[in-house]
Amino acid sequence: MYDFLIVGCGFAGAVLAERLAAEGKKILIVDKRDHIAGNAYDFYNEEGILIHKYGPHIFHTNSEDVFKYLGKFTDWRPYEHRVLGSVDGQLVPIPINLTTINELYGKNLTSDEVTDFLASKAEKRSPILTSEDVVLNVVGKELYEKFFKGYTKKQWDLDPSELDASVTARVPTRTNKDDRYFTDTFQAMPKNGYTEMFKKMLSHKNISIMLQTDYRDIVDVIPFKTLIYTGPIDSYFDYCYGKLPYRSIDFRFETLNQENYQSTGTVNYPTSNLYTRITEFKFLTGQKNEKTTIVYEYPTAEGDPYYPIPRKQNQEIYNQYKKLSEDHPNVYFTGRLGTYKYYNMDQVVAQSLALFRKIKSREEDVRE
Description:
Elements: E1 2-7, H1 11-22, E2 27-30, E3 42-44, E4 50-52, E5 60-61, H2 64-71, E6 76-78, E7 83-87, E8 90-94, H3 98-105, H4 111-121, H5 131-156, H6 166-169, E9 186-190, H7 194-201, E10 207-210, H8 215-218, E11 224-229, H9 233-236, E12 246-256, E13 266-268, E14 277-280, H10 281-285, E15 292-300, E16 307-308, H11 312-325, E17 331-333, H12 335-338, H13 345-367
Parallel strand pairs: 1-2, 1-11, 2-10, 7-13, 11-17
Antiparallel strand pairs: 3-4, 5-9, 6-9, 7-8, 12-15, 12-16, 13-14, 14-15
């Protein structure tokens, strides 16, 4: 008899497994894939280069609690991600900053001057409802078309005017020369990779793991008390209110007989090519190797569900599933797929730590 059956061995499931096991609970964690670590899974390819199977995973957080918690299972390698955009035949920093504007327009503006420059370009929108509104409101149409419109269309197969404001709000505009992609307090990569971190997280004697296992095949066979489900919530309920749409990515890896391919970790292609970006893993991992591996990302509607699509009508479908889930008090839904929300890794960890506290407090209430 297991106390908890956890479906999914990514961040959401693994953090809960570790926390509950540390409290003396017996855990069975199952995953359809043949490996742990979910989409954060990394491994050494034939050339000995550490690559991320499901595209680049770059860790950043403002939460000291999350950073310290994961730090129990890994040493960190400080890393600040930088992204260039291929725009008008130049490679310029993304998010848009002072350098981006000066290089694109051949100017030599100061921070104050670039604030005025962007204000002169901006098309004020009110209320701000869509991703298009967010960008036009800050930088205007020209920069919107150079940096956002094409990239968003490729990534989501929707015009920014059809997407929730939260999508482009993730990418700020800066008036200084800060060219880091993220400005979070803690920015680092697990020193020996994500998979090694997950191995340590899941090494507790109270945790059993079954890979290449669909939970439906064992749910009526293996006894357990409580289910934690990190898969797609619509799948759990057999799509009774319809299928929640996701975007997937077709990853194309290439190993090159040269030390480096590009000048930074990621280069975005907002207006050219079918792929959205190219990432070179050695920047992320700090590895030394005479060869290098890059990955091209081609967004697609088919494939593993990676990105919930933030639109009002999708949220309404999810809300129906969420309401239905309230009739299942013995099942907890969590993670990006279980709550149909576009979370970063640190947000998923924080969500799982919060859910652990909720479960613990409920159990204490029952005992009293």
